[in-house]
Amino acid sequence: MKEIILCKYGEIALKGLNKSTFESVLVKNVKRRLKRFGRFDYFRSQSTLYISPLDDDIDMDEILEQVGHIFGIVKMCKAIELDKSLDAILNDTTDYLSDALEDAKTFKVEAKRADKSFPYKSPEICTELGHTILEAFPHLSVDVHNPDVVVTVEIREKNAFVNAMKFDGAGGLPVGTSGRGLLLLSGGIDSPVAGYMMAKRGVQIQAIHFEAPPYTSERARLKVERLAEEISLYCGDIAFHCVPFTDIQVAIKENCPEELFTIIMRRLMMEIAQRICEKEQLTCLITGESMGQVASQTMGAMVCTDAACHMPVFRPCIGLDKSEIVEIARKIDTFDTSILPYEDCCTVFTPKHPKTKPSLAEVESGQAQFDFEPMLAQAVENTTFKLIRCGEQNVNI
Ligand code: ATP
Ligand code: MG
Predict the structure, then answer these.
(1) Which residue from 14, 94, 184, 314 has the highest number of Cβ atoms inside 10 Å of its Cβ?
(2) Residue 302 beta carbon below 6 angstroms from any ligand 1 atom
């Protein structure tokens, strides 16, 4: 029996004239993701992508798991591909669906005929298959309103497909359909979640991390690379930029007012991030900030941060409580890495009493105590680059 996977698109189906662009990005993303698992045939019809394996040794549960991380797919399931005859459908369905049907109490059959020349109409297919299932599983009864299992039969041009189980997909829009942005990725809980949320809405992300050796360790950086690997399961390949930030932090500490230290540091991060965006042709910055979470995330502080850059800064966690962010971090499996204890450059030289309501004028004049430009240019120059490949786990902390 040959198994295939069906993926339903959801929101893309509503995109009118742009639908085919969204579809082709989705299919490209799926193909790229599944390449290393073997060869597949792909075809699309009625807001569904059919993935059919061409090699015998492909683990279809693994494929289903992979597809479950691809944005743009709302529902998915495995299905059996059969000869297009009522006999084949009646003979093979009960075997294939025995696990699902044994555990259920009620079921119904739905039939769809893309090929209208098939000699049996949909109600006939439903009745026949319904009887066959009831004979094989006498404990079942039919419930057309609220069944435990819906058995779906699709009659297509060449074959018939039968499936029973539907799993939730990752939802969202295909990565790459909403432009490209740069995620400021720290080792915390929030920024990986922010990257996930933007990728979910179709943004292709690159990541930038600021490190301050020897105040921050090699392990701290590896932790962030691991987080990038973890979100890459959803986001696809991630270009990872690592910026040496020590000199700048020391210069802030030595030259600027202590209570403004963090906010000036964040403004300089934004300036560097923006230059990387220009090099890489990215159009927005993304952070994991949430309103009021810490002193540098008050409205006033964020206004001062944003004044340092001309690019839009998206903060998808802005309205979430910490507990809600943690819930997402657990769902996407970044939480355990995020809580590993390694230090972040933000925790080096933190002021005792950071200003929570700084005025832009005082921040600008505090920052003007020192000419950071040569150091900013140097930091960009010395930024290192690494490609994190989707789904690969190479980092050992
Ligand atoms: P997170 O959990 O993401 O670390 P946080 O609550 O610790 O967030 P901050 O440390 O104030 O908050 O950082 C706010 C945001 O600034 C982070 O979400 C991240 O986007 C960015 N950021 C902070 N530190 C770094 C860093 N070392 N490298 C890159 N981005 C950073
Ligand atoms: Mg942090």
Answers:
(1) 184
(2) no
Expressed in angstroms and rounded, the spacing between residue 189 Cα and the centre of ligand 1 is 9
How far apart CA 264 and CA 252 sit, in angstroms, is 8
pLDDT at 392: 86
Q: Is the CB of 296 under 6 A from ligand 1?
A: yes
Tell me the β-bridge partners of 111. 153
Distance 241 CA to ligand 1 centre (A): 15
221 lines ligand 1 (CB under 6 A): no
Ligand 1 centre distance from Cα of residue 90 (Å)? 58
Residue with tokens 């698109």: 9
- What is the signed CA dihedral for 216, 385, 381, 314, rounded to 10 degrees? -80
pTM comes to 0.92
How many whole angstroms from 320 Cα to the centroid of ligand 2? Answer: 16
CA gyration radius, the chain: 26
Residue 294 makes CB contacts below 8 A (sequence gap 6+) with none
Q: What does DSSP say about strands 2-8 and 106-113: parallel, antiparallel, or unpaired?
A: unpaired
Residue 288 in contact with ligand 1 by CB distance below 6 A: yes
What pLDDT is recorded for position 348? Answer: 73
Helices 373-381 and 246-255 meet at what angle, rounded to 10? Answer: 170
State whether the beta carbon of 346 lies less than 6 angstroms from ligand 1. yes
Residues 267, 308: contact at Cβ < 8 Å? Answer: yes
For residue range 322-354, what is the model confidence (pLDDT) as tens digits?
Answer: 999 999 999 999 999 999 988 777 777 788 888
The secondary element (H helix, E strand) that includes residue 76 is strand 73-82
Helices 261-280 & 360-367 angle (0-180, nearest 10): 80
Which sign, positive or negative, has the C-alpha torsion 395, 389, 74, 60? Answer: negative
CA geometry: angle 206, 192, 221, nearest 5 deg? 75
8: left (phi over 0), alpha (psi -120 to 50) or beta: beta
